[in-house]
Amino acid sequence: MTPQERAERAARAMWANDQASQQMGMRLDEIAPGRAVLSMEVQPHHLNGHKICHGGFIFTLADSAFAFACNSYNRLTVAQENQITFLAPGQLGERLTASAQEQALAGRSGVYDITVTGADGRKVALMRGLSRTVKGQHFPEEETQASGA
Q1: 45: DSSP letter
Q2: Which of 100, 11, 106 is nearest to 59 (CA)?
Q3: What is the per-residue pLDDT across 121-131, written as a single tens digit (0 to 9) for each?
Q4: Rounded Cα–Cα distance for residues 74 and 70 (Å)
Q5: The CA-based dihedral angle spanning residues 5, 10, 13, 14, taken in that order and rounded to the nearest 10 degrees
Q6: In this predicted model, what pLDDT tens digit does every residue of 20-46 receive, in sequence order?
Q7: Residues facing residue 38 across a β-bridge
Q8: pTM given for the model
Q9: What are phi and psi of 127, to 5 degrees?
Q10: Which end of the chain is more exposed for a tag (fewer CB within 10 A), N or C?
Q11: Hey, CA dihedral for 102, 63, 76, 35, is it positive or negative?
Q12: What's the mean pLDDT when you consider all of the chain?
């Protein structure tokens, strides 16, 4: 199995159980080892009292992209810490895109940068996620293959 095939299969397994991302209207646009792109259209129920996309929904989009990126090796991986900076508002009807990219992976710990952009390409938010791999896999596979050995 190639690393890309592993990432795609792990993403399918995760997506099948990810009710939060699905019910928020997210779409998995790209997956690769250590990388994921998810997007969602800002709907009326995503708006806060300022009539802009609530930061919690932007965070959830970024966190979901982070999750798919760090689970792309078929090793169960969870968030250990996340920090987000909001730069611009998301507007009703626009598609927000979260692109997650692995920056470092050492043992069970990973560092990922996630950029959320608006439909016009402006940066809406920047997030850094720290991951921790736990026991288990998304689908059965030899452990030595899953760790890239």
Answers
A1: G
A2: 100
A3: 999 999 999 99
A4: 9
A5: -140
A6: 999 999 999 999 999 999 999 999 999
A7: 28, 98
A8: 0.92
A9: -130, 145
A10: C
A11: negative
A12: 95
